[in-house]
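Hello,

I think I submitted the adenosine-5'-diphosphate job twice by accident. Can you confirm which output corresponds to this input? Input:
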Amino acid sequence: KKKIAVMTSGGDSPGMNAVVRSVVRMAIYMGCDAFCVYEGYQGLVTGDIRKTEWNDVRGYLSEGGTLIGTARCMEFYERPGRRLAAKNMILNGIDALAICGGDGSLTGADKFRSEWPSLVDELVSMGELKEEQVAPYRHLNIVGLVGSIDNDLSGTDNTIGAASALSRICEMVDYIEATASSHQRAFVIEVMGRHCGYLALMAGVATGADFIFIPEKPRGDNWQQDMTKIVKKHRDLGKRKTIVIIAEGAKDINGNKISSQMVVDLLKDPNGLKLDTRATILGHVQRGGPAVAEDRILATLQGVEAVKTLLEATPESETCFIAITENKIVRKPLMAAVEATQQVAKAIEAQDFTKAMALRDTEFAE
Ligand code: ADP
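Support: Only one job matched these inputs. Its output is below.
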């Protein structure tokens, strides 16, 4: 029987459990044995790999976070750590792995797959494993699933967890609005997103925010005057509250950070708007809580496709990740998307927004 393992890695996101459930059950449905690797790459290095049955993932569909654990694993960055990971996989008879994580985890996955044959050779030459033991496992098949609340991966329209985080943010803004309206206050709400303003922008649209700050579209030198003018206009129209949404990576056009405190000070300015203003940094509530329907569905459909991809893979086939493009679940080349994502982050740091946007919108061949 073929053995397929699933793992969650990097920052947790709602929907990761739904991925685990989907991969485990699809693998069993296809006549394979299913395994879970616990605590991300740490579990590969330490050998925390457990056979998982259909009923073991009951209740996983809606649960937030990841029940099989995730970790940042230093050993996996080094070759000896990856060699140990290969040994543990072979000892468990596993040569197919679905990994749900962010661009870091997917980079590690690609490196692991490309090194696999030489890692196996080393294990034999070092006397760790015998030739007969490794013979059936000369190739590793890997597939990526993108678990990230930021929706920051190039080549896919959405990532698993982003819809839940966005929903959570909107819910929190709704709660804050009650107080804002009652007291005619202003609130500056900081959301996650160092290089990607998706959550801030969409939350702003969904809550009718007065002003939004995102890394991709830095405000000009006159942002203070611009914001003051708009907030004043809205107040003059009779609006009793002011909501400003700021992504944690917000900057001005000169590359200087715009912090929530700077925005608060501006709204409070005794010579300006004079608004009673508070800041709320949403932090980890954005990651928490159950997965919304959209993430459960995305995770389930992508998990099914991931197992199909693993079963159809040949030693020659390119490593894929599962994307969603124009509402279709599709396979795309993993490293092209990961590299583009990392270049987007660099371009945003370097204030080259035209390049960043072009890279983010790249449609990789399916
Ligand atoms: P994310 O997957 O959310 O981007 P990280 O970047 O922290 O999170 O990556 C998660 C784990 O993946 C790391 O702790 C490490 O074990 C592994 N990893 C990340 N990048 C690499 C790499 N370049 N080479 C090998 N392993 C990596």
